Amino acid sequence: MLGILKESVHITNKYIILATPLILFSLLSTIYLVLSAGGTNLGIFISVILYFLMFAAFLSGWFFMVVKSVKNTEEDEPNGLIKCFTEGVGEYFLSSVVCILISLFVGTILFVFSTYIGYKLIGNPNVSAQALSSAIVSVDAMKSFLLSLSSEQLMKINLWNLLLFATISFVYFDILFYPAALFFKTKNPIKAFLYSQKDLFSRHFFKNAALYIFLFVLYFIISILAVLGGKNIVMHFLFTLVNFYFMVYAAVLVFNYYYSHYMKIGSKIDEVI
Prior knowledge:
Elements: H1 2-14, H2 19-36, H3 41-71, H4 84-121, H5 129-135, H6 139-147, H7 151-174, H8 178-184, H9 189-201, H10 205-228, H11 233-262
Helix pairs in contact: 1-11, 2-3, 3-4, 3-11, 4-7, 4-8, 5-6, 8-9, 8-11, 10-11
């Protein structure tokens, strides 16, 4: 595991060009969302669909670049990797669209199940949506809102927060290997999802969980430091770069880990579901 962590750092540093599409997409998508805000319901719906397609195109090209970087660690011209982006879009765009839809469907199912469990085991805290929306306007409003709640309501709200946090964490864990399976094993998004579930919950399960926990803790630390230094312009810029580096490293690490454990000759992994 430690060897893969170090190797992934080496790959990330060598193929730092991977950050370029990520930064450009982040910038362009932000501009697009700002310009498309407002308007009619139909206009908003079309904007959301276009953004969804843009996101799928980005993922198909970017993940294809990540795969190339993991497979070709000894490439003499790492900056030439950028040429693979359009190839990945052409080859994996439709697969990425369906992959995102399946991920959203799985997440929705898990959230519905989690909500059902919550109402059965925790119960309704009896807090209106209007009161909650008014409370998030400011810090003082939130303090007043919390002081108005009973101890039983506060307990239920805390349990609901814990349940939703656990659900979100499990959703991300559940689709951890989905993109890697799609780009390494099969372009069929349904088969890729089945492969990813088989690989995630069978062999190396505890190592897989350790990988996820490592990424989660690292992201949590970076987020806390970014919040603490957010008021300083220089620190804010620095942590923005750190965040982009982390996203590149996280993608490389997951793909490299999956390639090492489930694809390389000698891994002894049966692809038959």
